[in-house]
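# nightly structure sweep
# worker-07 picked up a monomer target from the shared queue
# config: single-sequence mode, recycle default, output format = structure tokens
# input follows
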Amino acid sequence: MKKALITGASGDIGSAICYRLAKQNFHIIVHSNTQLKKAKSIALTIQQNGGSAEAVAFDVTDAKSTESAVSKLIESGAIQVIINNAGIHSDAPMAGMDLKKWSSVIDVSLNGFFNVTQPLLLPMIQTRWGRIINMSSVAGVMGNRGQANYSAAKSALHGATKSLAQELASRKITVNAIAPGIIEGSMTGNNFDKDTIKQLVPMKRAGKADEVAALVAFLCSDDASYISGQIIGVNGAMA
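# output follows
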């Protein structure tokens, strides 16, 4: 059974990805930084439905603790699917944005991607099969007012995705990014009312976490073995 690590898995999109990949017979490693109880609950639900899962907690911005944690996870075999889903918002117009807001967002989305992925690459390469999916945002494609930090982090992740895809292509490892738009859930519920969504989204509705998870599941399948280095939007035709 192949192992899949989903970072930031306690949120709406992360948990939906966990449940979807569990149905595809992956062993799910449910990661959280501060919500280990929620991660354990997701893992238990997967187990109760006949799947295989475990929960783990570490701070993706801490390179040493991340390396230590993932080293333990691969003692029983390589992790062949990495879903880099951990991310945070700390919005402000750039004229009023302090260094902490700028750095913290980039640290989680961009440095966290490196800290998690880099130590897992050689074991994955040795298996000659793998899937790496980096969760981005429509803000990384279009930009967004008040999110220069978030947009910068996600745009940089696009470049890293394309470069890593080229490095790993000959090893049968694909690397892609998914850029969701407005998705129903706790992250967006208080920011967009129905009228705003109708103005911003040509489909006139917010997306669902399960719709993002469905794309993740496809990209992790053998049917997607020739798709790599792509930034794929799930945004109701926003961009």
